[in-house]
Design brief:
The protein has about 375 residues and is α+β, with helices and mostly antiparallel strands. Among the domains are: about 35 residues, no CATH class; about 170 residues, 3-Layer(aba) Sandwich (Rossmann fold). About 30% of the residues lie in helices and about 25% in strands.
Length: about 375
């Protein structure tokens, strides 16, 4: 009886930790048809780019410069991070200030609710700097003619990324191959790039969805950089499902297409919708110089993003929740903001997908 009670208590504790950490279960890469993927939305994270009229990034903004509303409900920032700087825990700073106030040892913050007007600098959170970047490389038969040049472009991108970032390298044709799991080791990632071989048809959306699932459970900034040379001709799911899941998990999607938008209007429109929905970008490069410029732009974007997070206020809406981010303060309203515009809760953001097959060659973490 005592052993049974202990087992039950342990199970309850594990379940509680699972919900509190908003853990997202990983599906096996060889997914069953009509498999279910569940996301428990507890902490909402936003990656926010702030630029001026010429596209230059604006740095040095503070937590109190941002106002976030979800379904027109004002939200209170929990963490704040700029670029690769250490994130700030604003809730911990607020708690410390209130304790100091109660003890009569410090001046109280100007705003008791610590919403958009709070004046606390925050407490640094160690060990969470940098972004988690997944590179998804098209190795389908669309890439035959420019395969080596594409490998060179990705290799240069990997080597140019700041050391604070961790990188994973995946490739896809009909199936997904996880050549290098997340690591700070650039040599290991480059080795994965160089070991790729050309395949057959392209199942981009299937592979991209699986990559979003791999990134979903991670904290901090997470982004997927797709290098594509053609349309999707083998997936069993639409791009809208990919965009919805990426939005719900706070995963940025960047797409670099080696074909000009006018040559593949249907695919180009899908690429732009997916990337825009997540706060990322789509690039259409007609030559190797434009490919290099696209990767450089992605690197700059990831370096200059503001990462904001909050715990949603009570909200009866179980479907699509809209998010609006604004800048407040003198002179800040002229700047442009790019981020995702919402997420779909849908009974804990349950997304049903159908994937016929996907291969998994996952190397051991080193």
């Amino acid at each position: 009886m005592i052993r049974s009670m202990r087992t039950f208590t342990c199970l309850e504790l594990c379940s509680g930790l699972f919900l509190l950490m908003a853990a997202v279960p990983r599906l096996a890469a060889q997914d069953e048809p009509s498999s279910r993927f569940r996301v428990n939305v507890v902490l909402v994270q936003l990656n926010v780019a702030v630029t001026d009229g010429k596209g230059n990034y604006i740095s040095g903004l503070r937590p109190e410069d941002f106002v976030i509303k979800e379904d027109n409900i004002s939200e209170r920032l929990a963490t704040f991070e700029e670029g690769n700087e250490s994130p700030l825990d604003l809730n911990e700073a607020a708690s410390s200030a209130k304790l100091d106030k109660a003890a009569g040892t410090a001046k109280a913050p100007e705003s008791e609710n610590l919403g958009p007007e709070h004046t606390l600098a925050g407490v640094k959170i160690p060990g969470l700097t940098g972004a988690n970047v997944f590179i998804l490389f098209d190795t389908s038969n669309y890439m035959y003619r420019s395969f080596v040049f594409a490998q060179d472009a990705i290799t240069d991108f990997v080597r140019s990324m700041p050391d604070a970032n961790r990188i994973a390298f995946y490739s896809y044709s009909r199936d997904l191959s996880r050549s290098a799991s997340l690591t700070p080791d650039r040599f290991r990632v480059v080795s994965g790039v160089r070991s790729t071989v050309a395949g057959d048809d392209a199942a981009l959306y299937n592979s991209l969805l699986l990559t979003v699932k791999d990134a979903a459970h991670l904290q901090g900034r997470k982004a997927i950089v797709v290098f594509s040379n053609g349309p999707d001709n083998a997936s069993s799911i639409p791009p809208e499902d990919v965009a919805e899941l990426a939005q719900s998990t706070g995963t940025l999607i960047y797409i670099v297409s080696t074909r000009e938008a006018k040559t593949e209007p249907i695919s180009s429109a899908a690429f732009e919708r997916m990337s825009k929905a997540t706060g990322g970008k789509a690039y259409f490069a007609g030559n190797w110089r434009q490919e290099k410029e696209a990767f450089s732009s992605i690197k700059d974007d990831l370096t200059h993003l503001y990462t904001l997070s909050y715990y949603p206020q009570t909200n009866a809406n179980r479907g699509w929740r809209s998010i609006k981010v604004q800048l407040v303060g003198k002179g800040l309203e002229k700047y442009h903001i790019r981020t995702r515009d919402g997420y779909s809760l849908q009974q804990q953001a349950e997304v049903t997908t159908e994937i016929d097959s996907a291969s998994a060659s996952v190397p051991e973490a080193q």
